[in-house]
Design a protein that fits this description.
Number of strands: 12
Largest sheet: 5 strands, parallel
Helix content: 40-55%
Shape: elongated
Strand content: 15-25%
């Protein structure tokens, strides 16, 4: 945000669409930055943090899904994805990658503005809410600031740094199937070899420790051809 102006970054390779969206947003009082692809987007993000990214799915070079995944691995920056009507599967994947909403082409000005404002409202509400850093699940309490986990009796569970980060990834996304790639992004924040089995080994170690401390809880389940699912409900605690 530049001062009190809400700034939106448009990542779109079609100059006509990009100009149309930019003009519309400028008329509504938004600040606008433009990029025709990943390289130009990276240049903008290196010098400022916009309040929202409008990201086209089909881009030359690095596509929108890859860009979305890369942004989300580092930042909670709100993302509105633009897709063609035929890209239903890609829209679903885009939301799984972390896009906050999507809009299909062709779209009307009023619908675009409504989506933009809705995503911005949600982002501001999350930013204003003080994030809880302690969560309870099963018989455990995890404290992210202290990087500790203990059972209801106060007995600590010894985890390596990697195991703690993995558990944190699950606790913050309970009852949701997480793919190996998503887990690697969220715990390491970098690309990995698709055949990297580190996640499987870490999950196995973490599962053994949790099961040992809470027998029969089965907190982490394996989803065939999907990934892993943290089965316990999670609630924030003071």
């Amino acid at each position: 945000m530049h001062g009190s102006i809400t700034t939106i970054l448009i990542v779109e390779d079609d100059p006509d669409i990009r100009r149309l969206v930019a003009d519309l947003l400028c008329r509504e009082g938004f600040g606008v930055e433009e990029a025709d692809g990943a390289a130009a987007m990276d240049e903008v993000l290196a010098r400022m943090r916009p309040d929202l990214v409008i990201l086209d799915l089909m881009l030359p070079g690095e596509d929108g899904l890859s860009i979305c995944r890369r942004i989300r691995a580092q930042d909670a920056l709100p993302i509105l994805m633009l897709t063609a009507k035929s890209d239903e599967i890609d829209r679903v994947v885009g939301l799984e990658m972390g896009a906050d909403d999507y809009l299909t082409k062709p779209f009307g000005p009023r619908e675009l503005l409504a989506r933009v404002r809705a995503v911005l409202r949600r982002g501001r509400a999350m930013a204003l809410a003080p994030p809880s850093r302690r969560f309870a699940f099963d018989r455990f309490i995890i404290d992210f600031d202290a990087r500790q986990i203990a059972d209801a009796g106060g007995n600590g569970l010894t985890l390596t740094s990697a195991e703690f980060d993995l558990l944190g990834c699950f606790v913050q996304r309970p009852r949701r199937v997480l793919t190996r790639d998503q887990i690697l992004d969220w715990t390491r924040g970098r690309a990995n070899d698709p055949f990297d089995r580190t996640v499987d080994m870490l999950v196995s170690r973490l599962r053994r420790k949790l099961d040992s401390a809470s027998p029969g809880s089965n907190l982490i389940s394996t989803v065939r051809n999907g990934g892993y699912l943290f089965t316990a409900p999670v609630k924030a605690v003071p």
